Amino acid sequence: MAVNTEAANFIHAIINEDLKAGTYGGRVHTRFPPEPNGYLHIGHAKSICLNFGTAARYNGLCNLRFDDTNPSKEEVEFVESIKEDVRWLGFDWEDRLFYASDYFEQLYEFAVQLIKLGRAYVCDLSPEEIREYRGTLTQPGRNSPYRDRSIEENLDLFRRMREGEFEDGSRVLRAKIDMASPNLNMRDPVMYRIMRQTHHRTGDKWCIYPMYDFAHPLSDYLEGITHSICTLEFEDHRPLYNWYLETLGLQNRPKQIEFARLNLTYTVMSKRILRQLVEEGVVSGWDDPRMPTISGLRRRGVTPAAIRDFCERIGVAKSNSTVDIGLLEHCIREDLNKSAYRVMAVLRPLKVVIENYPEDLVEELDAENNPENPAMGTRKIPFSRVLYIEQDDFLEDPPKKYFRLSPGKEVRLKHAYIIKCERVIKDEKTGEIIELRCTYDPTTRSGGESGNRKVKGTLHWVSARHAVKAEVRLFDHLFLVPNPEEEKDEQGYRALLNPNSMEVLTSCLVEPGLAHATTDKRYQFLRQGYFALDPKDSGPGKLVFNRIVSLRDSWAKIRNSGS
Ligand code: ATP
Ligand code: MG
Q1: Percent of the chain with pLDDT over 90
Q2: What is the pLDDT of residues 9-61, one digit of tens each?
Q3: Which member of 162, 253, 255, 271 is catalytic?
Q4: Looking at the 3D structure of the chain, how many domains does it have?
Q5: Ligand 2 center to residue 34 CA distance, Å?
Q6: Residue in 77, 148, 127, 67 with CA at minimum distance from that of residue 101
Q7: DSSP letters along 242-281, please?
Q8: How confident is the model over 445-473, as a mean pLDDT?
Q9: Domain boundary among 411, 434, 460
Q10: Residue 167 resides in a domain
Q11: 305 with 195, same domain?
Q12: What spacing in Å lies between the alpha carbon of 260 and ligand 1's midpoint?
């Protein structure tokens, strides 16, 4: 594969410079480093596409590394879900699956080296005292009274920390940098803390655990990473990232590059809040189809191609911004437009009897599966005397320019005939419309010789005798406001939740072919949107469809109105 050296973004521009200068001997090696403390979301997808995509672009490699330095929050369930999600998105780490915990022994040795260099010390201040000694943005910090311990004493105390001689939280190992640095991250940051916690991989072998800022640059180094791409909040940590590598005198040091994280309107990217939504039962789980998680999007029916396309289009930048969720929906529609089967499903059925249609006749009508993609072929759909249409498609007292069905008016039934509404039957007690009596014009069959008489409205329908029952779930945004993370108050996000984010319709009727629907296919229910089977709640004899996205495309409208 030829290497594409054109810079599509500032990260590629940096890599091009390195390649030109021969900095890493022409190598490009990235990594995606999730912390296994939650499920991945669409923001992580941006990072995954960027890291794996950049490696692929330069014929390089990308590792999957679990950043599992904090045993108190991490679980095996998250590790498994993350692997599944990265694979599903279409990326392959081959044999390069790593855990920061694989390096605990080497990291310990690096820490010992820093002590020997006089650049790390054991500190007995309490966490509160450390905070107090650190100073503020406007005030320099003060040196810890333990800062000038001898190398021998530090080596001895650090070894005994490892051996479990001291209480949790009673001592830490700190880097000896500069308590007056304008960058708070450089004020003797903690490298190791004592925590008696069982780790999902190392069990109870360790009672001291390294901090992320210490473990990360060295894990990158140990894996031969060249470009360590991370999000903007780590910009102020870069001097520390470099300090560890430089102070240890390491060669071929990886380079940290920051980019802006993805924020999306009407949802949240904070793992903490997503976790709360799951734990408080606001949603049914991490894979609830309303969640911005990869597993939620997958369950909803979104394809990996649509997510990759979205990540490509938003690009990478150096300043934070929020992307309109309409753009994600637009990418999903673009992807499904040519691949979804166009079928008919009536979500809120209203009975229609065609009085002049023979009782026992069933006609098999031809229907194309996708007019945008003739290769998808055609199918037969049955037409008979009793049908269902959408309740919404009938009005007894229509306003002007109402082109659906009303008394005395005509509409075309898609793939079938023109019908006319003759009479309305109501429930005697409630006055509710329960049935329409219609007639059909047999000369107007779609595709037939004289089938081209025109009427303004075309409705979808199903044949009562042949239709199959289904449950349909319609989704709306999880939050009522565009920026819930900014707008939340002391009550948190709760008041901002959209109470109507899911509508469940249990008496839908779908065309008979959908009895054989499969989870690998996507369907456009004519006039209703794109749908897919829910892989969890559907089963033999039970069809549950999720609406992936509606048909209306506000994003395309915004773009086309010449903005
Ligand atoms: P935490 O607050 O738990 O650290 P995190 O969102 O940073 O959460 P990580 O598991 O550390 O989660 O993230 C793995 C990688 O994905 C990191 O490199 C991080 O920078 C990147 N990432 C996380 N959220 C986003 C986002 N919204 N947009 C782009 N990249 C993201
Ligand atoms: Mg993180």
Answers
A1: 91
A2: 999 999 999 999 999 999 999 999 999 999 999 999 999 999 999 999 999 99
A3: 271
A4: 3
A5: 7
A6: 67
A7: HHHHHHTT-SS--EEEEEPPEEETTS---HHHHHHHHHTT
A8: 90
A9: 460
A10: yes
A11: no
A12: 11
CATH code at position 515:
2.40.240.10
C-alpha–C-alpha distance, residues 381 and 511, integer Å: 7
Residues 76 and 214 in one domain: yes
The pLDDT score that the predictor gives to residue 1 is: 43
> Per-residue pLDDT averaged across 211-232, rounded?
98
Phi, psi of 146 (to 5 degrees): -100, 5
Residues 349 and 337 in one domain: no
- Cα(315)–Cα(247) distance, integer angstroms: 35
- Domain boundaries, position 207: 10-259
Tokens of 379: 């199918």
Q: What is the CATH number of the domain that holds 59?
A: 3.40.50.620
Query: At 6, is the pLDDT very low, low, confident or very high (cuts 50, 70, 90)?
Result: low
What six digits make up the tokens of 433? 């419309």
What are the two backbone dihedrals, phi and then psi, of residue 387, each rounded to the nearest 5 degrees? Answer: -130, 170
The pLDDT score that the predictor gives to residue 59 is: 97
Residue where the block lists tokens 């010449």: 562
- Convert the pLDDT of each residue in 107-118 to its tens digit: 999 999 999 999
How far is Cα 399 from Cα 372, in angstroms, rounded to an integer?
33
Of 201, 230, 259, which one is at a domain's C-terminal end? Answer: 259
Ligand 1 centre and the CA of 67: distance in Å? 11
Helix H or strand E encompassing 80: helix 76-88
Active site residue 488: no
CA–CA dist 331, 287 (Å, integer): 20
- Between 555 and 174, residue with greater pLDDT: 174
Residues having CB within 6 Å of any atom of ligand 1: 33-35, 37, 43-44, 46-47, 230-231, 261-262, 269, 271
Burial class (CB in 10 A: 0-12, 13-18, 19+), 37: middle
Main-chain dihedrals φ then ψ at residue 9, nearest 5 degrees? -155, 175
Rounded to a whole number of angstroms, the CA Rg of the chain reads 31
